[in-house]
Amino acid sequence: MSVRVLIVDDQALVRVGFRMIIEAREDLEVVGEAGDGEQALRLAAQSRPDVVLMDVRMPGMDGLTATARLTATPDAPRVIMLTTYDLDESLYAALRAGASGFLLKDVRPGDLAEAIRVVARGEALLAPTATRRLLDRFVAADLSPPGADARLDRLTGREREVLELLARGASNAEIATRMTVTEATVKTHVSAVLRKLDVRDRVQAVVLAYDLGVVRPRPS
């Protein structure tokens, strides 16, 4: 079954380029294109995409507002924010709004396709150096949500270890190897972490882990 993708960008050439990349992959399909946030919300309701590629800055409703509204809906799609710059001030807010990560618009075709697959699986798109720098800047701002410490206390020792490895960008397979358990066991732990922290996906768990100092960004 293919991953359904909605492309949202106010530049037609960008949308065409991304469509060509996506449709060249047998396991991915484009179900619509939108030029602003309002159109994106309408098309998302109609086409039910799995992943939305969302531009940050657009006329009318911008990508940040659209992302917050999209991720608040039942069975919300995963959202990947698109930006021209490697450290956009609005991207941390986008992660808080429910985005599953971000990509630069000059991303390589193969990396774009793989990013869509990763996010569709519910995994974190937090590997790029730019994302680490983004988190590094805002971790110092003490933006922890109210009650976050209490949620962290709900985790068992093993679940906290899983959270730390997630925040370091480890995949389920890598976590399984480090902890000497099966990937099925890791998935169970990850589900428990998300439930106890009251976050919607791995990305939000990682943001919270950095906020609370469970892990700290490594020096550049």
Automatic annotation (TrEMBL):
Top-rank taxon: Bacteria
Record flagged with keyword Nucleotide-binding: no
GO terms for biological process, alphabetical: phosphorelay signal transduction system; regulation of DNA-templated transcription
CDD domains: LuxR_C_like, REC_NarL-like
Residues in Response regulatory domain copies: 4-120
GO molecular function: DNA binding
The species this protein was found in: Actinoplanes awajinensis subsp. mycoplanecinus
Pfam families xref list: GerE (PF00196), Response_reg (PF00072)
4-aspartylphosphate carried by residues: 55
Alphabetized UniProt keyword annotations: DNA-binding, Phosphoprotein, Transcription, Transcription regulation
InterPro entries listed in its UniProt record: CheY-like_superfamily (IPR011006), NreC/VraR/RcsB-like_REC (IPR058245), Sig_transdc_resp-reg_C-effctor (IPR016032), Sig_transdc_resp-reg_receiver (IPR001789), Tscrpt_reg_LuxR_C (IPR000792), WalR-like (IPR039420)
Stretches assigned to the HTH luxR-type domain: 148-213
Protein name as annotated: LuxR family transcriptional regulator
